[in-house]
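Q: Got a minute? One more chain.
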Amino acid sequence: MTTNAYIDGVKHHYWKPFYKRLWQRNYYEHIVRNEADLNRIQQYIKNNPALWQQDALHPKQAEQHG
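A: Always. Here it is, folded:
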Protein backbone atom coordinates (compact mmCIF):
# COMPACT_ATOMS: atom_id res chain seq x y z
CA MET A 1 0.00 0.00 0.00
CA THR A 2 2.75 2.42 0.90
CA THR A 3 4.66 1.82 -2.31
CA ASN A 4 1.52 2.35 -4.37
CA ALA A 5 0.75 5.59 -2.51
CA TYR A 6 4.31 6.79 -3.18
CA ILE A 7 4.08 5.96 -6.89
CA ASP A 8 0.73 7.76 -7.10
CA GLY A 9 2.23 10.78 -5.32
CA VAL A 10 5.12 10.94 -7.79
CA LYS A 11 2.85 10.55 -10.83
CA HIS A 12 -0.04 12.77 -9.79
CA HIS A 13 0.96 15.05 -6.90
CA TYR A 14 4.43 16.30 -7.91
CA TRP A 15 6.29 14.36 -5.25
CA LYS A 16 10.02 14.21 -5.80
CA PRO A 17 11.03 10.81 -7.24
CA PHE A 18 13.60 8.79 -5.36
CA TYR A 19 16.11 7.20 -7.73
CA LYS A 20 18.07 5.00 -5.37
CA ARG A 21 16.72 2.53 -2.81
CA LEU A 22 13.46 3.68 -1.33
CA TRP A 23 13.01 1.00 1.33
CA GLN A 24 15.43 -0.38 3.85
CA ARG A 25 16.52 -3.95 3.24
CA ASN A 26 16.90 -6.50 6.03
CA TYR A 27 15.06 -4.55 8.68
CA TYR A 28 15.11 -5.81 12.24
CA GLU A 29 11.96 -6.76 14.13
CA HIS A 30 11.93 -7.06 17.89
CA ILE A 31 9.24 -7.87 20.44
CA VAL A 32 9.36 -5.52 23.43
CA ARG A 33 9.32 -7.89 26.39
CA ASN A 34 9.75 -5.65 29.42
CA GLU A 35 10.19 -2.06 30.58
CA ALA A 36 13.99 -2.18 30.42
CA ASP A 37 13.76 -3.33 26.81
CA LEU A 38 11.29 -0.53 26.05
CA ASN A 39 13.58 2.07 27.63
CA ARG A 40 16.58 0.83 25.61
CA ILE A 41 14.61 0.99 22.37
CA GLN A 42 13.26 4.45 23.17
CA GLN A 43 16.79 5.73 23.79
CA TYR A 44 17.94 4.23 20.50
CA ILE A 45 15.10 5.95 18.63
CA LYS A 46 15.79 9.24 20.37
CA ASN A 47 19.57 9.21 19.86
CA ASN A 48 19.92 7.48 16.49
CA PRO A 49 19.15 10.46 14.17
CA ALA A 50 22.19 12.31 15.54
CA LEU A 51 24.39 9.49 14.21
CA TRP A 52 23.09 9.66 10.62
CA GLN A 53 25.81 12.04 9.37
CA GLN A 54 28.47 9.44 10.29
CA ASP A 55 26.54 6.41 9.03
CA ALA A 56 28.21 4.45 6.22
CA LEU A 57 24.88 4.43 4.36
CA HIS A 58 24.57 8.23 4.44
CA PRO A 59 24.92 9.50 0.84
CA LYS A 60 27.81 11.84 1.71
CA GLN A 61 29.68 9.01 3.46
CA ALA A 62 29.03 6.67 0.55
CA GLU A 63 30.54 9.22 -1.88
CA GLN A 64 33.70 9.42 0.21
CA HIS A 65 34.10 5.65 0.48
CA GLY A 66 32.88 4.69 -2.77
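A: The helical segments are 2-12, 35-47, 59-65.
Q: Perfect, thanks.
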